[in-house]
Write a structure and sequence with these properties.
Blueprint: H1 18-25, H2 29-43, E1 48-58, H3 87-100, E2 104-109, H4 116-130, E3 135-139, H5 145-154, E4 158-160, H6 167-170, H7 179-191, E5 195-197, E6 200-202, H8 208-219, E7 227-232, H9 249-262, E8 267-270, H10 279-287, E9 292-294, H11 307-317, E10 320-321
Parallel strand pairs: 1-2, 1-9, 1-10, 2-3, 3-4, 4-5, 6-7, 7-8, 8-9
Helix pairs in contact: 1-8, 2-9, 3-4, 4-5, 5-7, 8-9, 9-10
């Protein structure tokens, strides 16, 4: 009798469909995890995790109606609109993130799209953070091709612009921006020579098939994103999704595994919602192929596990941050 563990790995399709990703998600969990871990080990050290830190450089006041977002002016969430941070304050935050072990620093601003004056100021922030020896990432809303080129010239390494969910579910979450506009921004970023960071949010009421549709959309970007943040919905009072039922934890793990299998060379990041995850659930996500986290006690407006807590988890799991050498083996007795 031939066990599944000894069977040859299936050849991935040239183009992923929602149905083919759904086929992954519907496998027995142990088979799915085995397949994901096998793919992961073909491309990455399975005990290394990349650390990114995220800073809100301009909080609140966004005109969009994204149903999950506490920064929208349409919802009463207690998030006040702020001004764009000054260079010195951003550099201080970047230095602290680097000292704590982060290798990438992401700056987020609550805009539908930046105006030219604000974009010029962000370009100066990118230059300043880059000078600290960190990879740089921004998430600023929609970009024109020229704006993307401006950020590339400033030294931007990554641009984050999430698809959020499957095309067929998108209209139930956002009405002020079309799915195609998100794809156009991603194309502008790619054509400017900036690496793409693009993922989605799970637990907004979507079906398993719609989660499969999101993963298929991401995997079929040409090329697929270098970085794929998988967010779990953070239910914020005042937003339309505040009372959403939590997503089943193993469904989240399954989706991480599908992201790893369909985008084998991407950094798959555990992003928003990680503070609500147990260490055991996070360990399953790492087994499923996640190999990046947002690191630090704050995301844009929501909490995150603190650095000491994450370091303790890494020690328990035998993980180490990207760039850190493994501990030397103990001498034989």
């Amino acid at each position: 009798m031939t066990h599944a563990a000894h069977a040859p790995a299936p050849t991935p399709p040239s183009r992923w469909t929602a149905e083919s990703v759904l086929g992954l998600l519907e496998q027995p969990l142990m088979d799915l995890l085995f397949q994901a871990q096998t793919v992961h080990r073909q491309h990455f050290d399975p005990n290394v995790v990349q650390l990114s830190s995220l800073l809100s450089i301009k909080t609140g006041g966004c005109p969009e109606d994204c149903a999950y977002c506490p920064q929208s002016v349409r919802y009463d969430t207690g998030v006040a609109a702020g001004k764009l941070m000054e260079v010195d304050a951003v550099v201080a935050a970047a230095r602290a993130a680097k000292a704590a072990g982060a290798t990438r620093f992401c700056m987020g601003a609550a805009w539908r799209s930046p105006n030219e004056r604000d974009l010029a100021r962000v370009a100066r922030l990118v230059q300043a953070v880059k000078a600290e020896g960190l990879q740089t990432c921004c998430t600023l809303g929609m970009l024109s091709p020229q704006q993307a080129r401006t950020l590339k010239a400033a030294g931007l390494d990554y641009y984050n612009h999430n698809l959020d969910t499957a095309p067929e579910f998108y209209g139930r979450i956002i009405t002020t921006r079309q799915y195609q506009e998100r794809l156009q921004t991603l194309q502008a970023v790619r054509e400017a020579g900036i690496a793409v960071c693009c993922g989605g949010i799970l637990g907004m009421g979507e079906s398993r098939r719609e989660r499969a549709g999101l993963i298929a959309q991401l995997a079929n970007l040409d090329p697929y994103p270098e970085s794929v943040p998988i967010n779990q919905l953070v239910r914020v009072a005042g937003t339309p999704l505040a009372d959403m039922e939590p997503l089943d934890a193993l469904e989240f793990v399954r989706t991480v595994a599908a992201a790893r299998i369909t985008m084998p060379r991407a950094w798959v990041r555990l992003s928003a919602g990680r503070r609500e995850m147990s260490e055991e659930l996070q360990a399953l996500c790492f087994l499923a192929g996640a190999n990046s986290i947002f690191y630090g006690d704050r995301l844009l407006t929501t909490g995150n596990p603190d650095c000491a807590q994450d370091r303790q988890m890494f020690q328990r799991l035998g993980l180490r941050p990207l760039g850190q050498q493994p501990e030397p083996a103990a001498p034989a007795a």
